[in-house]
Amino acid sequence: MAIIGHAIKGAINLADKLKSDSNHIEDQTRVLNDLLETAKTTQFGKHYKFETILKSGNIKKAFSKEVPYHDYSKIHEMWWSKIQQGERDVTWPGEPDYFALSSGTTGKTSKRIPVTNDMLTAIKSAGIKQVLSLNNFDLSPEFFEKDIMMLGSSTDLNERVDEKLEGEISGISASNIPFWFRPYYKPGKEIAEIDDWDKRVKRIAKNAKNWDVGALSGIPSWIELMLEEVIAYNNLNTIHDIWPNLEVYTSGGVAFGPYEKSFNALMGKPVTVIDTYLASEGYIATQTRPETDAMQLNTNHGIYFEFVPFQPEYINEDGSLKHSAPTLTLEQVELGVDYALIISTVSGAWRYLIGDTIEFTDIERAEIKITGRTKFFLNTVGSQLSVNKMDDAMRHLEAEFDTKIKEYTIAAVRGEDDEFYHHWYLGTDLNTDADNVTKTLDSFLKDANKNYAVARGKALKGIKVDCIDADYFYEWNASNKKKGGQVKMERVMSEEKFKEWRKFIETSKID
To answer: Which residue has the higher pLDDT, 99 or 238?
Structure first.
């Protein structure tokens, strides 16, 4: 009998019942006030008159009026570069102990995002919220005694000359796990510190039989590759042959939907999938109930949220926001509308364009879904094609052709006839007539997106589809950035980047 598991589950149940229901709008008002109050004497706070904002009758309105939008380039050039040069009290009191490295999905050069102790505390607090929400899911008492496999980036952080540490946020978080959690944490400190992703996964596969894993956590594409390695190394049919008590997968980084079919193919029985949204800038949201796969914004954990309607007239070609773009707060948003997400945080990010687009599925509960990236919005010829519509199209193809599409990318390219085409590459072993796939994809998008349908009758001449081994996508990431961690495939490429991609495909050999 799982005595410890019953005790832990009972404690979670009690704590969940005792905690009061959040009023997310009130939480956000309090968080903004705390952020401004704490940072009012920083260089940033003085420059943008936080003292004055705090004395205004409507601090949300005054804040949005006084402080401009920032993307990484702008805030780094004007402010965060000072932190790296050793200045204190720049955008947050004191100085950060860590920098989160993030190349995102757009290039080789790593961004360096400050991570303060206040942010680590906020992430842990949001993690406790996630644990308490497990009470809403039908999990066995035995689950709470099992190991948890967290597959992120290496925890062997790089030490800078100024004695600060830097690495991806998953590695920073894992290196700061509380002592009581360490016995449950897999693959353990020694293996987690291996920087080479392939070597780390091989060590995991070799040691897998020694662990009783009840939960997985990580980005779907890399989790799948790890599971495939464990299955192959140990000559298994499914992952449940070696981890029979696996009950939960905590997905993060990207929407899980496009990976659902290929992920389930590795399972011997159903598992509970819980979506989370941990970015380099903070723990944004987590799924708290099984009735939906939407995630609840962490409105009371060190982040103030704002929302800009994601419409072409408000977005520059590089994905940044125009100064005239309107800002909405949580009490002003509407259901089913795409918004660019803006955050201000206890790490000193201010009105920061995180680069993701979201939509609300339940405003009272502050529940959202990620719909794409501001830079992954294909509108070259007026098609207004967002990533969520692309994801839907991939799932339609999977169902139509009984296949799995692990990855994909697309670009608007000009053909030899000087006309524009959408050129797709699909990571799949689908073996069928390419024209049939092309027609099915084109027909689905016309039905799903009226702007795409209009564009196809005018400036968008047609589409082209190439089906390739999914390993090309993983090796492309390895050659441009690195494997594993927070690395995600770019869904939409510029025409110039697409030329590099095609050259890579033509010159690479995948075993």
So the answer is: 238
